[in-house]
Amino acid sequence: NIQLTINAQYQFIVEKALDKAMIDHGAESVTAIVMNPQNGDVLAMASRPSYDPNNFHKYDPNVWKNRAVSDIYEPGSTFKAVVAGAALQEKAVTPNQVFVDPGYVMVSGRRIQNWSGTSFGTVTFTDVVKQSLNTGFAQVGLRLGAENLTKYAKLFGFGEPTGIDLPAEEGGILFKAEDMRDSDIATMSIGQSIAVTPLQLVTAMSAIANDGVLLKPYIVKSIRNADGSVYDQREPTEVRRTIDSATDKTLVGLLEQVVASGGGSKAAVKGYRIAGKTGTAQKIRDDGSGYMDGHYIASFCGFAPVEDPQLAVLVMIDD
Q: What are the φ/ψ torsions at residue 22 (nearest 5 degrees)?
């Protein structure tokens, strides 16, 4: 007998929500993962469109794959949570540090502008995170440099499979630090020009929820023999510490502001303290030659309640 970490009730709620999202938004696909950030248990995991496993041959093979572990995409601004953590840890920035936001910055001939296309003027780093300002994050990324940026991305588990007990897991794509130009550093800082899986992202967010400690995600809780004896029992596995506890607390405070009064306000739930980060990433053309106009992958990744996180959730809507 195999016992999963999946909570049937959460799974039901998530699947209903995904069905609704597909209809409401006419999406190409949707994926959601719910995790327990304190032990790495995957409590719910689902994707749409789905298929009938009894008649799988009647469906396009693309629908068979588990998008949560096999799809890679540019995370966009959800990745800024990791960049902010790296910048705070390396003391490249403080929450109250003042930035001047001109609305766009030119880096190696590439124009990086805010999602709104406008300037926010003089702002603090807290505002940069809260309003998800690309100009501020590009400046912070350039301060950090290629080495640090890729180092922290790897610390948070990007660029390699998490090792979850599921087949066909992708490792994502990261630059080699020595190959990065300034424009690559700036775009990586805003969550572009890297590729991640949904599972990697929610695992990284879970590390932020878990005092900065990255845990290995699991979907199998235990395996028992026919006589009831335990063949295999999974225990929480600590991978490594990503950032210091004190840095992590500061970062959680910034991510709580995102939901309380920033770009993530739709995730607010009355009576709960919730932290998280929104993301809107342009979709890459199928032939890889730049981005498609008007096509986006929208996502949110967060956790609650802030004082004792029980759930970390990622929702991703493709187009």
A: -60, -45
State the Cα torsion 169-292-190-166 to the nearest 10°.
Answer: -10
Q: Which of 16, 25, 37 is closest to 304 using CA atoms?
A: 37
15 phi/psi in degrees, rounded to 5: -65, -40
Whole-number Å distance between alpha carbons of 193 and 79: 11
List residues with catalytic annotation: 77
Q: Report the C-alpha gap between 39 and 82 in whole angstroms.
A: 20
DSSP H helices in the chain: 8-25, 61-64, 67-70, 80-89, 125-130, 134-155, 182-189, 198-209, 245-261
pTM, full prediction: 0.94
- pLDDT tens-digit profile of 111-153? 999 888 899 999 999 999 999 999 999 999 999 999 999 999 9
The number of C-alpha atoms within 13 Å of 267 and in the hemisphere containing its C-beta is 28
